[in-house]
Amino acid sequence: MHSRAPSSVAVITALVFLVFMSVQPPSALPASEPLQIAWAGPLTGDVAQLGQGWLNGVKLAVDEWNAKGGVLGRQVVIAPEDDQCDPKQAATVATKIADDPRNVALIGHFCSGATLAGAPIENKANLPQIVNSSNPRITLQGWHNLFRPIANDNIQGKRGVAYVMKALHATKFALLSDKQAFGQGVIEVAKSTIEAGGGSITSTGGVEPKDVDYSPVLTKIIKMENPDAIVYCTNFPTSAGLMLRQIRQLGYKKPVIGCDGWFDPAMIKAAGSMGSMTSKADAAYITFQAPPYSGPEAPAGVKAFAAKYKTKFGSDPNGYEIYGYEHGNIMLAAIKAAGSTDKSKIIDVLHTQAVPGILIPRYRFDANGDVVNAPLYIYTVANGQFKLVVQATD
C-alpha cells in the first residue's frame, strides 16, 4: 500500500504550531513549577547557630503554607546560600541569587555588613527582600525593594544604655565594638543617647572579634578610666562571652551592656561562671528583639510557635527562630496578596498592606522599609540562662 500525502491544510497547521512553540519564552515555567524563595545568611562560622535558627524558622513557615496548598497554587521551596556573615562572601552570594531567574524573592541577609555588600546587587534585580540586619544605613539607601521587620540600631543602641542610666544611675560609659557595621552602628547610637542624657564617654574603641585576649584594651578601660558601665556590641557570641569573662576576671563589678549578638548559648558558654549576675549592679544587660519562648513572660503566640518548632526540629528555639518564621510568613502573605510572582507587585503589597504576625499583630513598614513599632527586650544572665528584665520602650 502507498501512504497518502498530507493535505496542504495539514501542512500549514503543522507549520503554525511549530512557529508558535518556537517563540514561547524559555523562562516561562509551568504553573506546577515550585515557587522559589532565596535565603542568605551565615551557616558556617561563629554566627552559624543564629543563622541556622533563622533559616529553620523560615522553613517551618514554608512547610505550613505547603501543607495548605502552597502559594498561588504552587509549592514553595527555599534556596539557602551561606554568606558566612562576611561582606565579601555576601557579594558573591548576592550575585548568584540575583542571576537565578527562579528566585521570586529573598529573605536575607542576616548580618549588617553582609546586607550592605549584597543589597545593591539584589536591588538591581528588583528582588523583594526581607533582612534581619539592623544597621540604620541599610534603609537609607533608597532600596525600594528592601524591608526590615526588626528593631534597628537606633532602637537597640538607645534603649540598652537608657535603661542602665535610669535604673542604675550610670553616667560614664566606655564603648567598644567589633569594628563591623552592626557593632559600630549600635555604638554610634549609644554614644549620642548617653550624651543627650547628660552622660559622658570615657573612650570609644574596637577589637577584633576573632581574638581571644582582650585584656590589653580592658585593662586600660578598667584601671585608668573606671567607667560606670562598659558597652560591647558584636555579632559574634563567643567574642561577647570572652569579653564578659575577661571583664569580670579583671575585677570590674559594674554593669556591662551587650547587643543582640550576645543572645546565644555560645555566649553563656564562653563566659562561663563569670557570666551570671550576682546583683543588678554587676549584671550584663543584653538587648534582643524577641520575648522569652517559655515561662510566665512568654506571650501565648510565642509559646505556641516554640512548641511547633521543637516538634519539627527536636530542639527549643533560643534566638531568631521566631523572626525567621515571621519573615517567611510576611513574604509568602505578600506574594499571595499580590496574586502574582511579579516582583514589583509583591513590593507594592509590602509597602501598602499590613501583614499579620506574632511579635507584632500587624506588620507595617514606613517609606524607608523599616517596620513600625518594633519591639525590644532587655535580658540578663542568671544561673546559666537568659532572664528577661524588661520590655524596653522609649
UniProtKB/TrEMBL annotation:
Assigned keywords, A-Z: Amino-acid transport, Signal, Transport
Superkingdom of the source species: Bacteria
Protein name, UniProt field: Branched-chain amino acid ABC transporter substrate-binding protein
InterPro entries named among the record's database cross-references: Leu-bd (IPR028081), Leu_Ile_Val-bd (IPR000709), Peripla_BP_I (IPR028082)
SUPFAM superfamilies per record: Periplasmic binding protein-like I (SSF53822)
GO BP annotations, alphabetical order: amino acid transport
Sections of the chain in a coiled coil: none
Domain Leucine-binding protein span(s) in chain numbering: 34-384
Keyword Transport: yes
Family of the protein in this entry: Belongs to the leucine-binding protein family.
Keyword Signal: yes
